[in-house]
Each structure stands twice: as C-alpha cells, then as structure tokens.
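Justification of resources, computational component.

The compute hours requested in this renewal are based largely on the per-chain cost of generating structure records like the one below. Each record pairs the submitted sequence with a full structure-token output. That output is archived, and it is also reused by downstream analysis tasks.
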Amino acid sequence: MHKIAIYNNKGGVGKSTLAVHLADALRRLDLKILLVDLDSQNDCSLFLGLEEKPEKTFFNLIDYRYPADLKECIIEIRDNLGLLTNTNYELIEKDLHRATRIDNFLDKVFEKTEEIYDYMIIDCSPSRSILNSAILFYVDSIIVPTQLEIASIRGFSDIYNYLEDLDIDSAKVKLVVPNMFDTRTKEAEDNLNELKSIFDEDMITSPINRRTKITEASKAGKTIFEYNSDTQLEQFYNIVERVIELG
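The structure output for this chain reads:
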C-alpha cells in the first residue's frame, strides 16, 4: 500500500478537491483506495456526498479508552473506495499528546490496511499540528497542491522548514500540483514559471485549470468524473499517471 498525504500549510489551495478526485480516479483503475479525511472541516466527506454523520470515525479508532475496530470506522462510499472521516479534532490532538512516540503512531493504527488497500490518501489540515506530524512521519509521499499566487509559492519554505523541524527527509515531497490555474491571466502564467524555477521539472504536474464545473460537482457531492465529462478529466488523469509512477 502506498501512503500519500495531501498537505499544504495554507488553506484554500484545493487539498480536499485533489484528494477526492485522486481517490476517485485511482479506484476507477480497479485499485482499492482508502481516503482518510483528517482535515478538521471534513470537506472530503462533503465532496463525496456523505450526508449522515458516521457513528464511528478516526477518533473512535484511536480512542485509548474504548478503541473501535478499523472495519467499524470505514464507510464504503464508492466501489473500491473506503472513507474514514474524523470527529472531535481537538480531542484527537489531546490523545496524540499522550502517545509515547508520534513517529510510528499511525503504523500501529493502520496496520490492518496494508493488505487490503493499494493506496491510502490522507487529506490534512492546513497547519502544524501533532496529528499532521504523525501523518507526515507515516506516509511514503507528500503531494502539495498550490494556488498560482506568489504568496502561496513563497509559502513552500514553511513546508520544508516544518519537515526539517521533524527531521523528515524533504524528498518525501514528491509532487507539486499547480491548482486553479487561470489561463486568461499573465500573472498565473508568470507564477507557474516561478514555480518551475524553484522545483525540478519532474516534480511539477500539469496545472489544473480553474473551472466552475469542479465547484458545482463538489457542491453536488460528486467528483467531476461523475458530474460532467470534459477536458478537465485529462488534467486529473495526468496527475494520476504521475502518482502511479511513485509506486
């Protein structure tokens, strides 16, 4: 199982949208995917049309008093796609502070998933937190979506400083996804070129164009694959190809 974190310390860059579409695209290739929604806003759950609050979530899975079984906490939200949501985010943080070691905490939590799923995709909150630290230790790869705005691009140094503080190899950052690319503006093109000057070419994926159809699909609880077939699909599939190359 290849474990991927979708992370940026800046909000509003499309993390949850990317996580949901990547998960949906991979499961359509007959791969078994576990999408773990550990963003405090639970946007992945919203974007996949989950209307009822689950009885058991990630919080119950790690509850040291009454731990739930993994199968009780995962919702089969689509064929080949399991969803693990979260509740009580602040209590999760408090419980993790009780952990003896944070660097291998999730290895034990997700031990049973290794033989079931081909990919685990974790949507992270845009922050430095003990939960995010545990996630970044746990995953094999980090994918960073970014808006093509100069503030977002300059914020990459904060991500690398965070990894350095945790003593995590920065090589875990495998892909950078330029998101919400506005083809009509020179600023977006200039910022894309700025991004390309910072990172190796093989780290940057094709940009995802700004499209109202993606927003409409998310509000409807669907992915773009389910909502409207257009050229936007090719952009996501290009990213999927890059992810599969990671292993």
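Residues 232-246 form the longest helix (15 residues). The radius of gyration is 17 Å.
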